[in-house]
Amino acid sequence: MYRYDEFDETLVRERAKQFRGQVERRLKGELKEENFKPLRLQNGVYLQLHAYMLRVAIPYGQLSAKKLRQLAMIADKYDKGYGHFTTRQNIQFNWIKLAEIPDALEALADVEMHAIQTSGNCIRNVTSDHLAGAAFDELEDPRPWCEIIRQWSTFHPEFSALPRKFKIAVTAATPDRAAVKVHDIGLVMKRNTQGKTGFEVMVGGGLGRTPYIGPTVREWVSKQDLLSYLEAIMRVYNRYGRRDNKYKARVKILVHELGVPEFARQVEEEFANQNAREKVLLPQEEVDRITAYFAPPKFETLSTKSATLDAAIAAEHHFARWCRNNLRAHKIPGYTCVHIALKPQGVAPGDASSAQMRAAADIAEKYAFDDIRVAHEQDLVLPHVKLDDVPAVYAALKANDMHASNAGLGSDIIACPGLDYCNLSNARSISVANEIQALFADPEFEDEVGALHINVSGCINACGHHHVGHIGILGVDKKGEEFYQILFGGRADEKAAIGEIQGPGLRHEEVAPALKRVISKYLELRTSKTEKLADAMTRLGQAPFKEALYAAA
Amino acid sequence: MPLLKDGKTVDDVWAFVEDGHELSPGGCIIVSLGRFLSEHDQLLARNRSIGVRLAVSDDPALLARFLDQLHLIELQFPKYTDGRAFSQAQLLRRRYGYKGEIRATGQVLRDQLRLMIRSGFDAMIIDEANAEGVYDYSAHEFSEFYQAASDTTDTIFIKRQKKREEKAAE
After folding, report:
1. Is A158 an 8 Å CB contact of chain B?
2. A340 forms bridges with which residues in the sheet?
3. Of the residues A249, A265, A292, the one at which a domain ends
4. Staple A465 to which of A455, A456, A526, A552, CB 3.0 to 4.6 Å?
């Protein structure tokens, strides 16, 4: 994991001090809320329905036990004892007092963390594959480049008052676990024809009101040119992105209105015009220094099979199910990646109590090389666990009610906080998600249905990624009443697609029964268990599923 | 409102002349980009200081060939959340090598001063009673930078490299 040096440390300390000054001016009335708003937003502070909310950056989703324990401390001391992990690998504290936020930022700085640029119209927390450095299917570890982008984008003097927020995601694996095609910039590490590793650059993906899959604007840019190329994109966007209407201000609208070839031409022209002074200088030794922090842990030489694990699987069917659903292949024999699904029945998706955070920290320290990741599915992941240790890890998770066996399945739902917390929201998300989860209360049924992504957003801003769920659910307000539109056909992976709205919205209590009919229709129509719901929709079209959706008894 | 130049309050000797209005016989005048582009021969022929006001959507490249004859370029912040002038300032300083005054007008707030200074502004009109004090504080809130900009190329990336080289030389 990257460690701050004196420069990184100085900056987060100075930022905490700066924000303390801004909060003091605000509390004394010297700073109007209108002028304070953009300042607090660039520190991740939102004013929600009931209280201020603090969003803390977890760069590319990586945590250590020490960091996670500090988040637990913040949850206890400044909040109500829990936090909410988000789809952008951040954590949110929903009940924090403005006057105490500077202290919380100091506490974060103590463990090399911050809330810088977690909101506001600037370059946000850079996200990545939660299996980075562990996945067997990646070209190389993308995290050094995520860290380099984090540093380059922090307090950028030119790009801190953009038309709108700006999100960058990086992956180096063939299956896209970081949803890079629905980010303002998606970077995919790949080799060029000479075999050199660089980045494919996609610009203008995004969800929200106007969802787009990000088109490729450059097939390949070298590592050396990456930051200069990003500056060229950002400058074109800063100068020409729309500012007349906040709903048309994301870069996706600029790319769409100009057309991809013209947008790419403008970026290439800006990139070509950069003189030597303007190029971002990143010495190779500096790249090497940062990369060294991400060196693989000291893996043992192990067999691909573990007798201990096999015996435990044979002995206990709940454990066997958890292993089947929550483990992912690791690049090193004898190791595995463990998904901690923060989605037990009836809990707000992505929520973790301080006790659970501490438990995960202890487990990571003892069994997982002190490495914990946040996945964009709002789950935690232990990327490096010895197969022999899996039974012990499960037991420790179970003791803290973190052993939901549903990773990637129907009840592993992505949902935004919705109307229970958020003042943008039109409808509740958590309660709908919980009712859908209840459809999968029977583990045999859930396993029978298999891989299924259900995503719930409480409004059109799409924080719950409803556009890219196999089944998406969007809460809308119709004359003061909550209704839910249902979308089919979305995907967030390398075959990313935007789901289609099926028809009129359903009432809150109609959503779960309607989804049950859709799932029954799928079970009836699928060719075999290997044909997942998303694949069946591709083969058959959405019509039979739509019919089931509206076939109320 | 106070005008700050390099962090000090100074008198404003410049006057903006609206398009179509007659130029005063003497003094330092600022004109719009449109007027400057159509009248630059006459404007620059007179022995007086000329400044140009760019709207946020104006392209600084249009001024590139005149920059060594200009004394001031005014860039605007219609709202302080509109950051286009940061790009204009960076282009003027770093791409086109402009050395004269770059002045910020509009909604200039103390919390943007650091970004402005970094981007190449050396003057701003700011609605603060203690303008110099505010400037002095804001300009020094941060002591290190990851990005090269108009004020420094000594980035954290470069400083780390220098430290490595010093260490290697020892």
Report:
1. yes
2. A380
3. A292
4. A455
To the nearest 10°, report the CA torsion of A43, A46, A51, A57: -50
Residues A142, A259, single domain; the answer is yes
The verdict on a CB contact (< 8 Å) between B80 and A10 is: no
Residue A328 and residue A370 in one domain? yes
In terms of domains, do A139 and A183 share one? yes
Give A146's Cβ-side CA count (13 Å radius). Answer: 34
Q: Say whether pTM exceeds 0.90.
A: yes
A13 touches chain B (CB under 8 A): no
Task: Kindly state whether residues A180 and A325 are assigned to the same domain.
Answer: no
Q: In what order do the strands lie in the sheet with B3-5?
A: B8-10, B3-5, B123-125, B101-106, B72-77, B50-53, B28-32, B14-16
Q: A136 Cβ partners below 8 Å, 6+ apart?
A: A329, A330, A331
Q: Tell me if A157 and B86 make a contact (CB, 8 A cut-off).
A: yes
**A to B CB pairs, distance under 8 Å:** 103
**Contact at 8 Å (CB) between B145 and B155?**
yes
d(CA A197, CA A411): 38
A546 and A464 belong to one structural domain: yes
- CA separation (Å) from A494 to A178, A411, A490, B63? 9, 22, 12, 45
Q: Looking at residue A429, what is its pLDDT?
A: 94
Give the domain extent around A102.
6-110
Has residue A115 been placed in a domain?
no
A388 lies in some domain = yes
CATH code (residue A394): 3.90.480.20
End position of a domain, from candidates A110, A125, A155: A110
Per-residue pLDDT reduced to its tens digit, A256-315: 999 999 999 999 999 999 999 999 999 999 999 999 999 999 999 999 999 999 999 999
CATH class for the region spanning B3-142: alpha beta
Cβ contact, residue pair B147, A121, below 8 Å? no
Q: A329 lies in a domain?
A: yes
Nearest by CB: A277 against B94, B157, B161: B94
Residue A408 falls inside a structural domain = no
Task: Please give the share of chain A, as a percent, with pLDDT higher than 70.
Answer: 100
Domains of chain B: which residue ranges?
3-142
User: Which H or E element spans position A472?
Assistant: strand A471-478
Q: Does A3 touch chain B (CB under 8 A)?
A: no
Q: Suggest the residue from A5, A26, A123, A158 to mutate for an interface test with chain B (most B CBs closer than 10 A).
A: A158
- Does residue A245 belong to the interface with chain B, where contact is any CB pair within 8 Å? no
Phi, psi torsion values for B144, nearest 5 degrees: -135, 155
Cα(first)–Cα(last) distance of chain A, in Å? 55
Q: Which amino acid is at A334?
A: G
Residue A553: what pLDDT?
55
Residues A243 and A186 in one domain: yes
